[in-house]
Amino acid sequence: MKTLIILVTFNGYKMTRDCLQVLSKLSPDRWKIAIADNASSDGTPQKIAEEFPQTSVLALPENKGFGFANNEAFRQNIPNEHFDFVCFLNNDTIPSIDALEKLVSDAEAYPGKAIFAPLVKNRDGSIQRTDYRFLSHSEFFLNAFRTVRSADVYLHGNPKPERDFHFLSNDWINAVCWLMPVKAFEEIGMFDEKIFMYYEDQDFAYRASKLGYRFLLNPEAPIVHLGGGSAKNVLSRSMQHDFSQLYFYRKHFGIFGVFLSRAFRFVRSFLRLSMLAPFSLFKQTARENAKIHATLLLFSLGMKGFQK
C-alpha cells in the first residue's frame, strides 16, 4: 500500500520546512510527498527541491487557488505511479508519523465509504475543532444574528462516536488533513477549481456526502495545526470568504441559494456595523472593522465587485 501526500504552498517556506522535516522520515516505499507551489515569491519551490530532494515539487506559474493546486499535483503524480491512498495536508501543520500511519490503517480496515481525518490541536495543545454540521437553511440564516462563539455551537454540533470503531463522526471535517482512497477522490470529482479559497473543502464534502461518503475523525491520531494566512489582510480574507460562500450556495441551491447567501451576509454585516458605529468614534480597531463590514454590506447587495 502506498500513499501520496500533497501539500500546497504559497510563500511561508519556514513552516513548510518544519512540516517536511517530519514527513521526510516516512518510508519512501510506502509514501511519496508532492508539493504544489502557487507561484511563491520567496523561493519556496527552489528551497524545498534543494533541502528535500526526495520530494516532488510542482512550481505552478500562477496562483489559481488551493483546489487547483491540489488537483494539479494529483493529476501530475497519479498516472506515473500506483497509489492506494491520497492525503491532503496543510503545510502549516506539524504532523506525526504515528498519526499518519493510523489514518492509513483506518482506511485499510474500514468497510464503508469514508474520508479520514486526525484530531487537530493548537500549538498550546488545546483542541481545534475541525468537524462541522451541514446547517439547514434556517440555521444558516439565523447564525447571522449570533456572535461568532454562539454561531459555532450550531456549526459544530456534537460529533457522534462510531459504533464498533474508535472514530468520531460529523457531517464533514475541514481539509487540514484528509486521507482517502485514490478512487474516492476521483469518484467525488476532485476539488472545484472555480473556488479560489474557502469553501472548497465544504463543497467537496457536500458532494461526497451525496455519494454516501462519511467523514471520520480518529481522536487517537493527533497533529498540530499552526494556522497560516494565505490572504493579504482581513478585508481580503473576508471578501474571499463571502465570494466563495455565494458561489457555494448558488452552485448547490440555485437562485434560492443566492438569495439566502446575500440575506445572511447583509444581516450579519448590518448588525456588526450597527454595533461598531458608536465605538468607531473612539477606537481605531472599531473604525477598521466598521469599514470592513461596510464593504461587505455593499458586496452583499451586489454593489461592489470582488478582486483577489
Quick recap:
The chain is an alpha/beta fold and 308 residues long. It contains ten helices and twelve strands.
Protein topology:
Elements: E1 3-9, H1 13-23, E2 31-38, H2 44-51, E3 56-60, H3 66-77, E4 85-89, E5 93-94, H4 97-109, E6 114-121, E7 131-132, H5 137-142, H6 148-156, E8 160-161, E9 168-170, E10 172-173, E11 177-181, H7 182-188, H8 200-210, E12 214-225, H9 234-276, H10 284-300
Parallel strand pairs: 1-2, 1-4, 2-3, 6-12
Antiparallel strand pairs: 4-11, 5-12, 7-10, 8-9, 9-12
Written overview of the protein:
The protein is of the alpha/beta class. The protein has 2 domains: 223 residues, Spore Coat Polysaccharide Biosynthesis Protein SpsA, Chain A; 67 residues. The protein is 44% helix and 20% strand. Strands 3-2-1-4-11 form a 5-stranded mixed sheet, sandwiched between helices. α2 links the parallel β2 and β3. α9 crosses α10. It is globular. It starts with a strand and ends in an 8-residue tail after the last helix. The model has no long low-confidence stretch (mean pLDDT 94).
Biggest sheet overview: 5 strands, mixed
Strand order of the largest sheet: 3-2-1-4-11
Q: What is the CATH T-level topology of the largest domain?
A: Spore Coat Polysaccharide Biosynthesis Protein SpsA, Chain A
Instruction: Supply the CATH class of the largest domain.
Output: Alpha Beta
Percentage of β-strand residues: 15-25%
Integer tally of domains = 2
CATH architecture of the largest domain: Alpha-Beta Complex
Q: Give the topology string: H per helix, E per strand.
A: EHEHEHEEHEEHHEEEEHHEHH
The residue fraction in helices comes out at 40-55%
Number of strands: 12
- Shape summary: globular
Distance from N terminus to C terminus (CA atoms, Å) equals 40 Å
Low-confidence stretches: none
Give Rg in angstroms.
20 Å
Which structural class fits the helix and strand makeup? alpha/beta
Helical element count? 10
- What does the average pLDDT come to? 94
